Amino acid sequence: MLPDNPANTLLEEALVRKFAAGAAVLAAGSISACKKTGDGEYEVQKPVIGTQTDTIHTPTVQVGSETTNVAVPKVEVKKETTGVKVPTIKVKSASQNAKKSY
Predict the structure, then answer these.
(1) What pLDDT score was predicted for residue 70?
(2) Domain definitions of the chain by residue range
(3) Which residues of the chain have pLDDT under 50?
């Protein structure tokens, strides 16, 4: 196969399209060959020479809840008040600074 040959890429694209179409037909056929026969049971037809029918039993799932004891640490929070020094800033305007007597 020669690289960058337009004839080869067209041939490859046509082959991929044919393969995709065939896969779509097979997928549609396999879906239609399956039917539900009971609770958790499906009847499936296999594509062999002729057809062969098998019954498949699907699993059941039970969902529930249980109560379990878990050890959890006990945490106590106590409030205490204490004095903290906080810096303060006092700003005086220029007119207040001019009133100072020296």
Answers:
(1) 92
(2) 1-56
(3) 1
